[in-house]
Design brief:
The protein is mainly alpha-helical. The chain has five helices and two strands. Strands 1-2 form a two-stranded antiparallel sheet. The longest helix has 54 residues. It is elongated. This is WRB/Get1 family.
């Protein structure tokens, strides 16, 4: 029975990631990664942004005609700050690009790749056996490709789990849509 539940958990994890979305997960994990492993860079970015907002606010309050020297000095400071922030954002974007590639590879390996490995490793194993004659002469296809006759193979079980989870997803979406229609007044 552990193979049965292990495959279901693996398929559920894959579908959960699909429901949430890889891009959403990437953003969440990358934000945590940046704060943990590159805290100085993230702090510098926040600091530059707050400095720029302060300088821009002061620049907007300063008259270019009446206080030109002060305005020009603030303008140069804003331009320098924007250039520094753009450079820092470029570094962060380059880091994120590499992180994104590694993250997507890891997610694929932990979901789809692992499903392939499990399907290959247990290709001749039965997840469970059906009662004799339950589906008549059509019961053989549940054991495809290599499981014993009268059983359900890993590949068929993965496909069944995925179909049930997809159907459950549609039901939940339909229920949420119905609830949304009832909440909105006509």
């Amino acid at each position: 029975m552990s193979l049965l539940f292990s495959i279901f958990a693996l398929v559920f994890l894959t579908e959960l990631i699909a429901w949430i979305g890889r891009s959403v997960l990437l953003e969440l994990v990358y934000a945590a990664y940046l704060r943990v492993f590159h805290a100085a860079v993230a702090a510098r970015q926040r600091e530059l942004k707050s400095e720029l907002l302060t300088l821009k606010g002061e620049l907007l309050r300063t008259s270019a005609q009446d206080q030109f020297a002060k305005w020009a000095k603030l303008r140069r400071a804003v331009d320098k700050g924007l250039a520094d922030l753009e450079k820092l954002n470029g570094e962060i974007a380059a880091r994120k690009s590499g992180f994104s590639m590694r993250f997507n590879t890891a997610v694929w390996l932990l979901t789809t790749g692992l499903q392939f490995v499990v399907g290959w490793w247990y290709r001749k194993s039965a997840v469970f056996f059906l009662p004799p004659g339950w589906l008549g002469p059509l019961g053989w296809w549940l054991s495809l490709p290599f499981a014993p006759k009268g059983s359900v193979s890993v590949g068929v079980w993965q496909m069944a789990c995925k179909r049930v989870l997809k159907a459950g997803e549609r039901v939940v979406k339909d229920l949420r849509a119905e609830a949304g229609k009832k909440e909105k007044p006509s």
